[in-house]
Every structure is written in structure tokens, then in C-alpha cells.
Amino acid sequence: MRVSIQKIQQYKDNGEVFPVLTAYDYPTAKIIDEAEVPMILVGDSLGNVVLGYESTVFVTMSDMLHHTKAVVRGSKKALVLADMPFMSYQVNPSEALVNGSKFLQDAGAQAIKLEGGEEMAETVDTLVSRGIPVVGHIGFTPQSAYQIGQRVQGKTVEAALQLVKDAQAIADAGAFSIVLELIPTEVAQIITEKVTI
After folding, report:
1. Which of 99, 103, 124, 131 is the most buried (most CB within 10 A)?
2. What is the DSSP letter of 116?
3. Phi, psi of 134 (to 5 degrees)
């Protein structure tokens, strides 16, 4: 039986730290699963790491579904979380719902991940209310690298407060977890203490 989102929440409630590792293929997923890592991310970073793209923005739904299927086949216990690729969810919540459902129905993932804060809350709510578990992703968001550059986010008071608002909006919309990437440790600690997920 696979790790559930309830089990992930239990880790948070109990103050337990747990690993999440990335896999793009069957053999890597098999190794990670046998090591009893509770969550595997099929990241759109496969564009850079596996497919040789300069950015994640070139990764397609077909790429992500193909690699997610392989990871699902290689795992039996871990919760498999798949990144939604660039422009597969940003257009509108309806399109996000159609694309998000493919990760569960066609690829066998148990959850999806999308980037963005307050501006994505409606989309998160749409997905979660229709049975698609969601992980949010704030701070440095690789799909926005051309716009924001690859640098630490939330270094000013105003930017830090926005990250806290973003995290709360995503949590309130129903996400069960949030990736905090390239943000100051102090800001990450405040967010972790403030949100219940």
C-alpha cells in the first residue's frame, strides 16, 4: 500500500523530518522505493537533467506523463508526485483540471505539484475539490526562471511577507504540502510554523 497524504500530514503533526527524492525512470524509482523513501517527485527538472533542455519550460505534458508512468511502475510504496509542466495549469483552472487528471488517471501518480502562490489558489482549490491532491511550490520557481532569475526569493521584508501570504493561500486552498525553494531559512521557519500542512 502506498504512503497516503494523511501519512505525510502525520509527519508534520509529529514534527518528523522525512526525505523526498526525485526520480525520472523505473530503475531509480525502484531503488528509492526499496529504501522506503515515502515520497518520490517526478520533477520537470527532467528537462535539464535527462532531456538536455536549458530550462524546464520546454518540458511537455507528454514528457511528464511518460516519465511519471515509468516511476509509478518502479514503485509500490512511495507516494508519487508529478510536476505539472509549464503552461499546463497557468491558463485557467479548467485546463489545469483536465491536465492534472491525466497524471492520476493515465500515469498513475497520487498527487501533482504546481508552482505559484496566491495567484494559483483558485486553481489549487479547483483541483483539490475534484479529488486531485496538490503540492504547492513557492520561492524560487524554476518555470519562472527567465523572469525572476535563479536567485534567493524573499530577502526583503515585503517579499518575505508575500511568501507567507502565498503559503497560507495555497494551504487554505487545500494543498497538502508546499515546496519552499531558495528562500531564507528564517522565512521558511515562519512559514513552516504558520501553516498547518
Report:
1. 103
2. B
3. -125, 140
Per-residue pLDDT, 152: 82
Name the burial class of residue 184, with classes exposed (0-12), middle (13-18) and buried (19+) by CB atoms within 10 angstroms of its CB. Answer: middle
- In three-state secondary structure terms, 37 is coil
Digit-coded pLDDT (tens) for 102-129? 999 999 999 999 999 999 999 999 999 9
Active-site residue (options: 95, 118, 122, 181) = 181
Phi then psi dihedrals of residue 68, to 5 deg: -65, -40
Distance CA 61, CA 59 (A): 7
Residue with C-alpha cell 487545500? 174
Nearest 5°: CA angle at 179, between 175 and 180? 125
Are 153 and 164 contacting, i.e. CB atoms less than 8 angstroms apart? no
Asked whether the beta carbons of 26 and 73 are under 8 A apart, the reply is yes
Residue showing cell 496538490:
134
Active site residue 181: yes
- Nearest Cα to Cα of residue 195 among 180, 173, 184, 172: 172
Q: Which three cell numbers stand for residue 175?
A: 494543498
Task: State residue 8 phi and psi, 5-degree precision.
Answer: -60, -45
Neighbours of 126 (CB within 10 A): 20
